[in-house]
Design goal:
Keywords: Signal. Pfam families: F5_F8_type_C, GSDH, PKD_4. This is PQQ-dependent sugar dehydrogenase. This protein is mainly beta. The longest helix has 10 residues. The N terminus is likely disordered.
Length: 906
């Protein structure tokens, strides 16, 4: 457990507490860099706005105002870069579904603002299709959480009208669509082209854990994807396959995983779109599809050329380019492709939508893709592993404050890696060259959006730090960086505070160690001390603000401030439950309670407590990024279900207490999941099986969270050692591609394969009795399934205790797969009491209902040995043995064991 203290900012600070190292002495800075950011020579990072609550998007209006979207649904507006007290332009929180990766994510200002006084928003709407928000009220616990497949929402694009710094009237809904079944891959971004049209991106709304073709949810297929009902390969078109919906025109087109080009006044398809003649209004809107999560988009200045940062699954991050949105629909291939190659998980599921794309239906490779396991720039310090491409922004092709080499460059960021890169053109102002990349900002702070602001500086949104950061270029002398360390910052009066400014720095070698310090302890304009360290005693009253100005040898300066409160002491937040060491499985109820005390107020009321549950998603123990699962404000506790998520990952519960004077204290507790090892094998060993995202050679073992849902796909057909193998069955009875719910104990799952071309007997455990005409019901050994138990002492016996049933009798076997059947193996029950079958017919069916003519007929010899009936090779999934008569005058049928021989068809 860790404790943090700090000054309360606008909104809640739970995520900030989760991201910062534990401190006992506040460090408050103004216009300072990120903690460890590394920039090219001459560049410096500064904080321009702070105190925001999970900011997601920044937009600069033509008149100088700056709009910032917060994930929960609020839009803040600043008059200019000097404004430190923003106005709330709009509050859409009642409509916004703010859980996990869902929220207010897209923002755009009309290019003729304020003459055209419109602000555009794209957000996750808190209601399923056809319902009205607030429906879930940001709480999906009753349906297994946001990643349980049942918390279905939609996306909404709206236009807001500005009157001064506030929205007037109600939002004008332009588009409501984008059925989103899972917690991630929600709506994306907005941008205007040089043509004045509005470009809109959104994700596929599918699961990030499993190969999702629409097979989950209660009811199954809540988004109504074709062909309808339960989804099974190869015909399924749901889940991530929604990104390919334009290629299945038999049904209405959805907008998931697409880029739209719209008339900004109406939300309808813009004139000149590639499918303008389609009868489907959504098809008319689409200019690109086949994307997983195009979280951020940008338009190359002076053009309609759209570039997209598409967040990948487990292997590749993509930068996609649509050179001319009106020339044709560009398909980037997801989920059939990831990066330039086939996506192993969806390829292994043998889905028609993908198989058709593989055979030449058309797929455009990304302009640039980077592997999760590789650096973007060789030798850089940016980490590998967990990756999620974030912002994208073009530097102007001419002018700007940066060196000429950056003119026309594409900046792009990765939220998980905390880095920003520049993709430079071969010559200033030209097209970026994918291979011409440089690390621009290593160890940046949670960058989720990039923008070029006034003067040609790069700005980025720091979602975790609740800040907007600017990267400036100083061709000559760089200003210093001011930093204050103050202790204590609150307490009873008189309060003596020790100040230390030695953490202040200057990037220029000539200025290092030569800074001048000017302290103004009450922020009244008077310099009170000029040493690096100082003390000051505050009387009762306040609150006060202490200011430090540091000046370098050439007169460049920077300031930092810290708030001081006298007569008020910090509260203490305490998490009571769950206790340290608590572990959880998927859907385990996690109930939490807490309290807070204050030296001045005593026990704080529940209204002073704010909670946040963070999910840390890791690729390595020291490489994690955060998803905010849920927030609870003003309550003493609550409950959340353990999320379904891949491992390694863990939860962090953060409690923040705020006293009447605005002082806060945060404490957190790490909650680790219960895990289990799942082993995947094949018979014969050494073949390829897909586990979730990609194929791997068996046997292998994966550690997963207990209760998590995972995909296994037996790759079929496949070649090993010159032999072609076809999938036969799974040891757990599942289909070739199916879902596994992780048990609490280690388990092995084995895929059985057959040698193509070799006649083999199917494993007894693969067969099921599909139907039977009659059977002994009063004796244990009369059950029809006895023909599959491998025990010659038990058998199928067609009679009742009191009467004999006349012939014919039949028993049907389900082969659990399609095969070329060429043999029926039959073990008769040979004794005087039970008789012996003399006449038989054998049938083969594809569906178990339509049987046609017999494929073999005959009589059995008078023997107790197993008999083999040779069948002309016939393709099917069901086999029927129909018995016609018997000897010894007994009107019943008795069979000890049945089996089928096949030649795999592939």
């Amino acid at each position: 457990m860790s404790d943090r203290v700090g000054k309360r900012r606008l909104g809640r600070i739970g995520l900030v507490a989760a991201l910062l190292a534990a401190v006992t002495t506040p460090v408050v800075t103004t216009a300072t860099p990120a903690s460890a950011v590394t920039l090219p020579t001459g560049f410096q990072e500064q904080v321009v706005f702070s105190g925001l609550n999970l900011p997601t998007n920044i937009e600069f209006a033509p008149d100088g105002r700056i709009f910032v979207a917060e994930k929960g649904g609020r839009i803040r507006v600043y008059d200019d870069l000097a404004d430190t007290t923003p106005t709330t332009f709009a509050d859409l929180s009642a409509n916004v579904h703010n859980q996990h990766d869902r929220g207010l994510l897209g923002l755009a200002v009309h290019p003729q603002f304020p003459a055209q006084p419109y602000v555009y928003v794209l957000y996750s709407y808190d209601a399923p299709p056809g319902q009205t928000a607030p429906y879930w009220n940001d709480n999906c616990a009753a349906v297994g959480g946001t990643n349980g497949g049942q918390c279905v929402i939609t996306g909404r694009l709206s236009r807001l009208t500005a009157a001064g710094n506030q929205m007037t009237g109600s939002e004008q809904v332009l588009v409501q669509d984008w059925c989103q079944q899972y917690a991630s891959h929600s709506v994306g971004d907005l941008a205007f082209g040089a043509d004045g049209m509005l470009y809109v991106s959104a994700g596929d709304g599918a699961s990030y854990d499993v190969v999702d073709y629409g097979q989950r949810g209660t009811p199954i297929n809540p988004c109504g994807d074709p062909p309808g009902g339960a989804m099974t390969p190869p015909t399924a078109e749901g889940g991530a396959l929604r990104s390919q919906d334009l290629r299945t025109p038999a049904d209405a087109t959805g907008l998931d995983g697409t880029l739209l080009r719209l008339d900004p006044a109406t939300g309808q398809a813009a004139p000149g779109n590639p499918l303008a003649g389609s009868a489907d209004p959504n098809a008319r809107r689409i200019v690109a599809d086949g994307m997983r999560n195009p979280y951020r988009i940008t338009v190359r200045p002076g053009s309609n050329e759209v570039w997209l940062g598409d967040v990948g699954w487990t292997k590749w991050e993509e930068i996609n380019r649509v050179p001319n949105p009106t020339s044709g629909v560009t398909n980037f291939g997801w989920p059939c492709y990831e990066g330039a190659g086939r996506q192993g998980g969806y390829d292994g599921a043998n889905l028609n939508v993908c198989e058709n794309l593989y055979t030449g239906a058309g797929q455009t490779a990304p302009f640039y893709a980077y592997d999760h396991a590789a650096t973007v720039v060789p030798g850089e310090t940016c980490p590998t592993g967990s990756s999620s491409v974030g912002g994208v922004a073009f530097y102007p092709a001419a002018g700007g404050s940066y060196p000429a080499a950056y003119q026309g460059a594409l900046f792009f960021s990765d939220y998980s890696r905390d880095c920003i890169w520049a993709m430079l053109p071969a010559a200033p102002g030209g097209l970026p060259v994918a291979s011409n990349r440089q690390t621009f900002a290593a160890a940046a702070s949670n960058p989720v959006d990039l923008a070029i602001g006034p003067g040609g500086d790069l700005y980025y949104v720091d979602i975790g730090g609740g800040a907007i950061r600017r990267i400036r270029y100083f061709p000559g002398n760089q200003p210093p960086v001011a930093q204050i360390n103050a202790t204590p910052t609150s307490g009873p009066a008189p309060l003596t505070v020790s100040f230390n400014g030695t953490g202040s720095t200057d990037p220029d070698p000539a200025d290092q160690g030569k800074l001048r310090y000017e302290w103004d302890f009450t922020n009244d304009g008077t310099v009170d001390a000029t040493t690096a360290t100082a003390q000051y005693t505050y009387p009762a009253g306040g609150p006060y603000t202490a200011r430090l100005r540091v000046v370098d040898t050439l007169g460049a300066s920077a300031t930092a401030t810290v708030p001081i409160q006298t007569g008020n002491s910090l509260p203490t937040a305490v998490i009571d439950t769950p206790a340290a060491g608590f572990t959880w499985a998927v859907n385990t109820p996690i109930t939490f309670t807490g309290h807070a005390t204050d030296p001045d107020q005593g026990t704080l009321p529940a209204s002073a407590l704010d909670w946040r549950m963070n999910l840390h998603h890791c690729s390595a123990p020291d490489n994690c990024h955060i998803h905010v699962l849920q927030e609870w404000d003003g309550v003493a506790g609550g409950t959340i279900a353990g999320p379904d998520h891949e491992y390694p990952s863990y939860l962090e519960l953060v409690l923040t207490a705020t006293d009447a004077g605005g002082l806060t204290h945060s404490t957190s507790r790490r909650l680790d999941p219960k895990t289990v090892n799942l082993t995947v094998a094949t018979n014969p060993p050494g073949l390829q099986v897909v586990f979730n995202s990609g194929p791997q050679t068996t046997p292998f073992t994966r550690t997963v969270i207990q209760g998590s849902t995972n995909t296994v796909s037996a790759v079929t057909p496949q070649n090993a050692g010159g032999t072609t193998y076809d999938f036969a069955s799974w040891s757990d009875g599942g289909a070739q591609t199916h879902l596994i719910t992780a048990p609490a104990v280690p388990t092995t799952y084995t895929a059985r394969y057959l040698d193509r071309g070799a006649s083999v007997r199917l494993p007894q455990s693969q067969l099921d009795v599909a139907d039977v005409s009659s059977q002994e019901t009063l004796q244990t050994n009369g059950r029809a399934t006895n023909v599959l138990d491998g025990n010659t002492g038990t058998y199928w016996h067609t009679r009742t205790r009191s009467s004999a049933l006349p012939h014919p009798h039949w028993i049907d076997l389900d082969l659990n797969g399609s095969y070329q059947v060429n043999r029926l193996h039959y073990l008769p029950r040979q004794d005087s009491a039970n008789g012996r079958i003399t006449g038989y017919e054998v049938y083969v069916s594809n569906d178990g209902y339509t049987w046609g003519n017999p494929v073999a007929t005959g009589t059995f010899p008078n023997t107790a040995a197993e008999q083999t009936v040779t069948i002309p090779p016939t393709t099917g999934g069901y086999v029927r043995l129909r018995t016609l008569g018997e000897v010894n005058g007994q009107p019943w049928t008795t069979v000890a064991e049945l089996n089928v021989g096949v030649v795999p068809t592939g």
